[in-house]
Design goal:
By secondary structure, this protein is α/β, with parallel strands linked by helices. It contains 15 helices and eight strands. It binds 5,6-dihydroxy-NADP (NZQ) and zinc ion.
């Protein structure tokens, strides 16, 4: 392991089917006004809203509701939330939902008291907050993004055709996250498998970079094996608590900074996926799934040793009598087979992308340098055409 790094993660987790009971203890640490932030209404249908409201009342809090956070939250919604938070001088933002709600809550937390335009400051210029930051707490209801234990906040600007993720520092990480696997059972199957693939993608983005022998890669392999195993159970039996809890725990570790230690990280699949999301508003995990196989086939030769290791360790590919290219290709074939098995979207056409939109997606794709092959816009164009 050759990298230098500092590791610290400030988010306190409460995990398990009784985890919500700790919310009342956490609330003691904050002032009287809580902004309850949630999405389009799933929490009202599955009872989570009532359970949370009861605890907030019991704790004597004044609740300011901020509902209607959409998937792929927009900058317009962020401006609205920042104003609500500021006008009500809220002491805590309690995000109850999936990655969109949590990402949005973090965006609001650094924007409410910020005098500059948050889109320009944080998402375009990647500046750090220099204003009062409102603490964020989380009750997670959908698994995938890892937003419950990281500083990521992805916001979409439809007018500009951009979807950008800002990774904030530890002061913006959620102060606490409540992870009850039972809360994820009501997630529709399409969203569940999109979340599962998002987790897989987070692990692969970090795994497929670097050439040193790094303990972090062994952790990544363990997480991928667990995810593949539990996902196969969850797609057949979504109510299986053991599978859903393992997926939830894997998702958190997939993107809580641990797997990035000592590694550059690739993240090009996410860059392309986010550019697709910016113009289609498609489900995040599906945008990644639609481009992953063409992308990995495209870069395989540049990171051949790692793709061989992936095939052997993660997919148990039989290596007898095969050369490196064959083994690596069989690993990708196994990945593709698993993706079809769990039912993710396998091409961009199914997400509504047309050939005419491809150039716009190329324009919206940031090119990163941490992976095995540094792409040009022309490379992205070829991968996108292959993904249609
Ligand atoms: O809005 P509601 O009614 O809550 O419905 C949501 C939404 O329609 C529904 N849902 C959530 N929990 C549910 C439920 N339905 C029934 N029962 C429940 N328990 O699921 C739908 C999707 O929710 P959403 O929060 O949008 O999904 P996800 O968690 O995948 O978040 C996606 C966003 O996170 C960003 C993505 O780009 C996207 O904007 N990401 C954030 C990252 C981070 N913070 O590090 C990294 C990721 O790579 C990703 O980019
Ligand atoms: Zn993701």
């Amino acid at each position: 392991m050759k990298g230098n790094f500092i590791y610290s993660n400030p988010t306190k987790l409460y995990f398990g089917d009784n985890s919500l009971k700790y919310l009342v203890d956490e609330l003691e640490n904050y002032g009287p006004t809580v902004m309850l932030t949630y999405g389009a209404g799933s929490i009202k249908r599955n009872g989570i809203y009532d359970a949370v409201i009861d605890i907030l009342r019991e704790a004597g809090k004044t609740v300011v509701e901020d509902a209607g956070v959409m998937s792929n939250p927009t900058i317009e919604k962020l401006y609205e939330g920042a104003k609500i938070a500021r006008d009500n001088n809220v002491d805590l933002i309690l995000a109850v939902g999936g990655g969109s709600v949590v990402d949005y809550a973090k965006g609001v937390s650094v924007s409410a008291w910020c005098e500059d335009d948050p889109w320009k400051k944080y998402y375009l210029n990647m500046d750090e907050p220099d204003c009062r930051i409102i603490p964020v707490g989380v009750v997670l209801t959908m698994v995938g993004t890892g937003s419950e234990m990281n500083g990521g906040s992805v916001i979409t600007n439809r007018t500009q055709g951009l979807k950008i993720g800002k990774v904030f520092g530890p002061e913006v990480f959620p102060k606490f996250s409540i992870l009850n696997p039972n809360y994820t059972i009501s997630v529709p199957q399409y969203q569940m498998v999109a979340g599962i693939f998002d987790v897989m993608s987070h692990i692969m983005e970090q795994y497929f970079s670097g050439k040193d022998d790094n303990t972090t890669d062994y952790i990544a392999e363990g997480l991928m094996r667990s995810l593949i195993h539990s996902s196969r159970i969850a797609v057949k039996k979504p109510q299986d608590y053991e599978a859903r809890s393992n997926i939830m725990w894997t998702a958190t570790w997939a993107l809580n900074t641990l797997l990035g230690m000592g590694k550059d990280g690739d993240w090009e699949v996410h860059m392309i996926g986010q550019a697709v999301g910016a113009i289609t508003d498609a489900t995040h995990g599906m945008t990644l799934a639609a481009v992953s196989i063409p992308y990995y086939k495209y870069i395989m030769a540049n990171g051949l040793d790692k793709f061989v290791r992936f095939a052997e360790t993660v997919w148990n590919v039989d290596t007898q009598g095969k050369n490196q290219e064959q083994i690596a290709s069989e690993g990708l074939a196994a990945l593709e087979h698993w993706m079809r098995e769990i039912g993710v979207v396998m091409n961009l056409t199914d997400l509504g992308v047309t050939e005419e939109q491809i150039l716009q997606i190329v324009d919206g794709t940031f090119l990163l340098t941490g992976g095995y092959r540094v792409l040009t816009s022309d490379d992205v164009l070829k991968i996108l055409k292959e993904s249609l």
